Amino acid sequence: MINSANARSISDLYNTEKNIVYFIPKYQREYVWNKNNWESLFDDIWENDENHFLGSIICINQKLDSIDNDRLELIDGQQRMTTLFIFFLAIYKHMSKLKDQIEDEEDLLEFNSELLNLKYKLLLKSDKYSIRLEPSYAARNKEDFEHLLSHETDFLKGRFRRSDNAGNRRILKAYRYFGNRLGEYKPNPKDVDGDYVEEYVFDIDQSKQLLKKINSAVLVKIEVSNHSDAFTLFETLNTRGVPLSPIDIIKNAFLNESEKRVKGSIDINFEKWTLLNNNLLDDYIIQDRFLRHFYNAYKNEKSIEVKGKTRATRSNLIHIYDTLIKKDPNSFFTKLNTSSETYNRLIVSNHEENSKGLTGALRDLQNIGGATSYQLLMYVFENFDLENELKIELIEYLVKFFLRRSITDLPPTRDLDKIFIEIVKDLHESKKYELSKIIKQIESLSTYASDELFFEKLEGDLYEENTGATRFILCKIEELNNKTKETYTDLWARDDKNKFIWTIEHILPQGSNIPPDWIQMIANGDKKEAKKIQEEWVHTLGNLTLTGYNSQLSNLSFAKKRDRTNKEGSFVGYKNGMFLNETLKEKEQWSKNDIIERGKKIIDLIKQYV
């Protein structure tokens, strides 16, 4: 399995006299280290003695003597090796700034020699252009790497094209982190005349000492001759990097088992896996959930069932999929990939194959937090030829179920998987789809919330207890009752920071310091009474609306909130044309009775909806 395992210094791994290029295969995940990892590496090296141990890497090498090999496929260790390359580059840039401080010719000659030696750790000395490390293609890593060398430094100036927005991704963020650490100044140093001067913490001597420590640091370099051996080791030796997610390990198991059965199939199977990843939006949370949902939906089939595993959980997921992959990796993957396509149509509500009605229903299910039901929907959509209207009818029922559950916490979250697994089992056995039966199964549960409890919760401090459900209710009421196209807007839209543009607005302000004009309005100037009213009613539905200008309304008086306009003169307060604000736009004041009355009207509208 292992050709060799030797402790190598970083200087040896980046040997200037050898034409070694480390390349990260395209099926590897992207560079994911962050500030905590960069800081840890920097401090580990600087604060410890020379020859500090940094962990291990795994390379595929067809020959035994890897130090003379030209290209080594880096299977494990890309995070460390990529970071060390960037660290070296930042040190080169920093030390280049220090040259002007060297006056002695002999010292300058030695310093320049050290810089040149450092340069050829990063570029092959033989042609002065080949980069010693080739990053992953994932998440534009290779493109950003080339941008760094070609446009952020003068190593390969102008040789590669610019990478759009590279500065917002991790390759350049890592480079800036190391540059900033190296560029820190000593606190208020003085020269011989007592004047303050700027002097780097990492001056010439300290920078040379840091470089020496990096060069002497040690990695255990494990060499194997094929992908199968590499993947086996990969799962156990990822000791210092970011922990592998379940889907990383399952992917490796699939590639490994497929490669064992058909040599040379790794590229084709990686492309297959990439398509599956794309279906799941390359999101670890969605991928993990899909893998659990797939097993829960299909465990009743003999080809999928894993003995003793009645439900997929985060703790048993890897075991389940490892077992399934070893049975028949390709047949299993075909079924898995088909379901990933169905799942894609569930999570991308505006998918091109979804009708307008289906898009709206799926959007509502997503917004109310109904993802647990995707296992049921995936099974139903794949096994029953339902008309579009029947699909929408099922989803709309689930939306109302999750709204009720979200408000009352019944059934409890821990029971949701069990409910949908049981329904799928019944569908599998009966081979017959009936929405009425599904509704009966859900509502027959002893923990299903009654209408009485649901409406009682709606009358309480809903915002404080469940902001997400409160937002859904307000948005849904506006959507169902505002039929004016001129004032329609996407109340679920987000800004470039992924925050909701339209947010919940408290009509009576919720802050602890109630403004004087509000105290006068709601309690005739009685501060204590105003506080009591606020505590009892501020978070109830009657006191809540939606606005795209929350920060501009805030603690303004009621009249100013009502009449607020933007710089173009358009109303952004309660006269903005929203259905939710119909009872607000003509009012001259706001009182406890107004909150109670408006709250009752909103709850009546919810009763009509559910």
Number of domain modules: 4
In round numbers, the mean pLDDT is 89
The major sheet is characterized as:
6 strands, mixed
- Span from first to last CA? 62 Å
Q: Beta-strand percentage?
A: 5-15%
Strands, count: 8
- Counting H and I runs of at least 4 residues, what is the number of helices? 26
Gyration radius over CA: 31 Å
The structure class reads alpha/beta
Shape: flat
Low-confidence stretches: 65-69
Oligomer status:
single chain
The largest sheet has its strands arranged as 1-6-3-4-2-5
Helical content (DSSP H or I, runs of 4+): 40-55%
Task: Provide a descriptive summary of the structure in words.
The protein has 26 helices and eight strands. The protein is α/β, with parallel strands linked by helices. It folds into four domains: 233 residues, no CATH class; 89 residues, no CATH class; 101 residues, no CATH class; 154 residues, no CATH class. It has a six-stranded mixed sheet with strand order 1-6-3-4-2-5, sandwiched between helices. The chain has a two-stranded antiparallel ribbon with strand order 7-8. α13 crosses α15 and α15 runs parallel beside α17. The longest helix is centred in the N-terminal third of the chain and has 21 residues.
Please outline the helices and strands.
Layout: E1 2-9, H1 10-13, E2 21-23, H2 35-47, E3 53-60, E4 71-76, H3 78-98, H4 105-122, E5 133-134, H5 141-152, H6 170-182, H7 204-216, E6 218-224, H8 227-234, H9 246-261, H10 266-279, H11 284-298, H12 317-327, H13 329-347, H14 356-367, H15 374-383, H16 388-408, H17 413-430, H18 435-443, H19 451-458, H20 462-465, H21 467-481, E7 503-506, H22 516-523, H23 527-537, E8 544-547, H24 550-553, H25 558-563, H26 592-609
Helix pairs in contact: 2-6, 3-4, 3-6, 3-7, 5-6, 8-9, 9-10, 9-12, 10-13, 11-15, 12-13, 13-15, 14-16, 15-17, 22-23
Domain GmrSD restriction endonucleases N-terminal: 10-254
Keywords: Endonuclease, Hydrolase, Nuclease
GO molecular function, one term: endonuclease activity
